[in-house]
Write a structure and sequence with these properties.
Strand order of the largest sheet: 2-1-3-4-5
Helix content: 40-55%
Structural class: alpha/beta
Radius of gyration: 21 Å
């Protein structure tokens, strides 16, 4: 495991700006998921909103409402039901977020449990409650405007696009330094794929494969990128 680097979900904090402070009591809610349909989790979320007096809107491919600029819309809501990347985007603008999708219901994201949830990418692993109105109503009741602001600040300081790019560059520099320290063996004793060379290539492959195209373009523009690529090519 010492050859594996975890790159959790991130958000472009320059694109998603903080909204005005949340009201003391939530009024508007958004179900933000491409999987939201009448056959998945939409009915449970709708019923929970009816029971708690929330006005609900739904955005996602499943209901034919794809929004290419969610940063313009998320700040209009007090509570957002989402998971993973969509949840982080909602958190970054300062809305309260209940983790939810077709697989089940998770918790309201709080500052106290932020690190634990982020390690799991705010994803399927934390959706442990059955898909029904009851757990959703329970999590809605945990709404706290001040805590949502704390979560917003945590996301913007710990899960930013710039921070993720810096981590990825650090991984590549570490790989180059590791290669520099290891004496290049002769062709007759060249290591097998199960040796350090195979592990090194796997580490590079999975780190780079996990990065979205937009972030890759950003990294390619960083100073020293050509030198970095040249060093990696010399590994072969």
């Amino acid at each position: 495991m010492d050859a594996v680097a975890l790159l959790p979900n991130f958000v472009d904090v320059n694109r998603f700006s903080p909204r005005a402070p949340l009201p003391d009591r939530p009024r508007r809610a958004l179900l933000f998921s491409n999987y939201a349909t009448e056959e998945s989790h939409l009915p449970a979320v709708r019923e929970a909103c009816v029971q708690t007096g929330l006005e609900l809107e739904v955005v996602g491919a499943g209901v034919g409402k794809v929004d290419a600029e969610p940063e313009r819309k998320l700040g209009q809501y007090d509570i957002v039901f989402a998971k993973a990347k969509a949840a982080i985007e909602a958190m970054s603008v300062g809305t309260a977020v209940v983790l939810c999708d077709y697989a089940g219901v998770g918790p309201m994201v709080t500052a106290a449990h932020f690190d634990w949830l982020r390690e799991r990418n705010f994803g399927f692993e934390v959706l442990r409650d059955p898909l029904s109105p009851e757990p959703l109503v329970r999590e809605i009741a945990r709404y706290d405007a001040q805590d949502a602001a704390r979560v917003r600040d945590l996301v913007r300081s710990r899960a930013s696009l710039d921070g993720t790019a810096a981590v990825l560059v650090a991984i590549y520099r570490e790989v180059l330094e590791e290669h520099r320290r290891v004496a290049r063996p002769s062709r007759r004793t060249w290591p097998t794929e199960s040796s350090w060379r195979g592990r090194l290539y796997l580490r590079l492959f999975w780190a780079w494969a996990s990065v979205p195209a937009r972030l890759r373009e950003m990294i390619r523009k960083l100073p020293g990128w050509r030198m970095l690529v040249g060093g990696l090519r010399r590994l072969g």
